[in-house]
Amino acid sequence: MKLYPIETGNFKLDGGAMFGVVPKSIWQKTNPADNQNKIELAMRTLLIEDGNRLILIDCGIGNKQSDKFFGYYDLWSEYDLTTSLAQYGFTKDDITDVFLTHLHFDHCGGAVQWNSDRSGYEPTFKNAKYWSNAQHWDWATKPNPREKASFLTENILPLHASGQLNFIDLPSSGNLLTDSSLGFDILFVDGHTDKQMLPIIKYKNKKIVFVADLVATVGHIPLVYVMGYDTRPLLTVQEKGDFLQKSVEEEFIFFFEHDPYHELATVMQTEKGIQLDSTYSFSEVFGK
After folding, report:
1. pLDDT score of 87 more than 90
2. Helix/strand/coil (H, E, C) string of the chain?
């Protein structure tokens, strides 16, 4: 097995929305805001090469929305999905599986693209199986008013129409699915959105967790630093507390999807609770 961090681009969101009730005077120390109160965020994905499989975890925002839509999010970056794959010698057609942690537009927009004459949509990864779960799919295709703007039909419904969509079974008990068909464990969490899936990957004698929107950035590691976007914030606190404790016990390495400054981090137990231990680049821990 080999892992590759894949940069798909960067965007900005309102800092207050990203940190909920945490005062700006505190969160701006780790996530400085611009003059519109927006903070920089990444849309970093992870590629797993495992035998004959190339598994992409999330796929960024894509490029099919209007300029007006993208203008809300101040897209900025020298990276995109195609060039990031190419630097490791891969193309979109090489991808065998696309694992979607959840179906918010910044995580799955790249899963679908315009067709050749821009008359409709088609899966970006024509040779891939796409993976969600039935409960989250139902949640996303019948969205609540709070999340409706994040679940875009053009990002979601073409996957089902293509016949490439597959569902991962929920664990028979608890919230951890071990030994999934994709070769990694999956932690299911419900605070941010219903049945978000977090891969836990055993790699080079370490456990790396793709933390997605449970821990958006290093600045979100403190227990009660919860996004205003979360549908069930008190549940997020509970799930995050359990996860942080398990992270200390099992020495998890966090892989950040949204932190623009840090790819990886570890946490430690202190007298004041679980806090950041160290941050790393991917190459510092796993080599190039």
Report:
1. yes
2. CEEEEEEEEEEEEEHHHHHCCCCHHHHCCCCCECCCCEEEEEEEEEEEEECCEEEEECCCCCCCCCHHHHHCCCCECCCCHHHHHHCCCCCHHHCCEEECCCCCHHHHHHHEEECCCCCCEEECCCCCEEEECHHHHHHHHCCCCCCCCCCCHHHHHHHHHHCCEEECCCCCCCCEECCCCCCCEEEEECCCCCCEEEEEEEECCEEEEECCCCCCCHHHCCCCCCCCCCCCHHHHHHHHHHHHHHHHHHCEEEECCCCCCCCEEEEEEECCEEEEEEEECHHHHHCC
Q: Which residues, other chains included, contact 17 with Cβ-Cβ below 8 Å and sequence gap of 6+?
A: 227, 228, 229
**Helix pair 153-162, 134-141: axis angle to 10 deg:** 130
- Give all strands of the β-sheet with 206-210 in edge-to-edge order: 176-177, 185-189, 196-203, 206-210, 252-255, 264-270, 273-280
**Residue range 243-270, pLDDT digits in tens:** 999 999 999 999 999 999 999 999 999 9
Confidence (pLDDT) at 227: 98
CATH of domain 2-286: 3.60.15.10
Token readout for 194 is: 């219903």
Per the DSSP assignment, residues forming a β-bridge with 202 are 207
Residue 93 confidence (pLDDT): 98
Q: Is 237 exposed, middle or buried (CB count within 10 Å of its CB: 0-12, 13-18, 19+)? A: middle
